[in-house]
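Thread title: Can someone regenerate the structure for this chain?

I was given the following input by a collaborator and told the matching structure tokens would be attached. They weren't. Posting the sequence so someone can regenerate them.
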Amino acid sequence: MNKPQCLERDKSWISWSKGALAQVRYDTPENAGFSNDERRAFTIALQGDYVNAAKEQQKVINDIEDSAIHGLHLQRLAIYTNFFDQSKAQQIQKKANQENRQLLRPLAGVQYKTPATKNLPQGKQASSWLQDRYSSGNDLLIAVNAMLSDLDWGPRTEQFEQSMFNLAWHIGHVGQQPERDLGCGPDGLWRLSDGTFYVIEAKSGADPGHPVYKSDAKQLSNSMDWFRKQYPDSKAVPLLIHPEEKFDSHAAIPPDCHVITTKRLEKLRQSVREFASGLVVEDAFRDPIRVTSLLNSHNLSSGNFLRSFSALGRK
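Best answer:
Regenerated them for you:
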């Protein structure tokens, strides 16, 4: 192609390029019908006909299988419904939040539910979850690398908390985010295979070189109070993620408090990276015995985790 012809809009070049583009045929997007229904619902809503907009939005919902996306469109249905039936809209929003915890909470709030688990051994739990999640070792590696890029110090605190949640499942625990989902409780809650818990407060945005301040220590103590109310017969370790394990002189250290510090977090990230590399060798993630061995060798088993990747809080 002659560059000046292109830049100067030469008539012969324009004719040639239009002829080339005329032969191009585009595949019809798989979600074309889905998008059309959604656009139609929005257009009807703009006209003030919220009842029929809700009916069109319901057509969108009926064709969605992914729970997170299904929840998002339920929330849009709730928005339309709220114009003519506020009580029903709240019921729809409650269901939307149950399917996707990152969505708005209903006015009445969200009731905490304890995780339903089969109490499988850690390696078996991890293998089962990984097989459900990933179709190949390459997919697993890509996801773990993305997770580890967020598991680092800095202002992206929400992404850090999400990566801690994801990490729990990758290494065979059950993860929750009560503060995000309910507006109360800890940033993270891990249920281990032996029935014990980690109550996690993440301060990944804290400045290095400063001790744990009184407000952060109090927040962790409050989260432990929340845990004891929800699980009166269970045991938990308070786990703080902070650059320093040293607490300010005015801060009260929660009993048995462990801290994932700057050095410990880097050690954890490296262990998870090596663990993931081992998982993809001959699809080891599909074998609970090999997963268990990898968890042990990289100190990610529940018996080794705190000792390897945290330090006791101190004055």
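Residues 122-312 form a domain with the Restriction Endonuclease fold (CATH 3.40.91).
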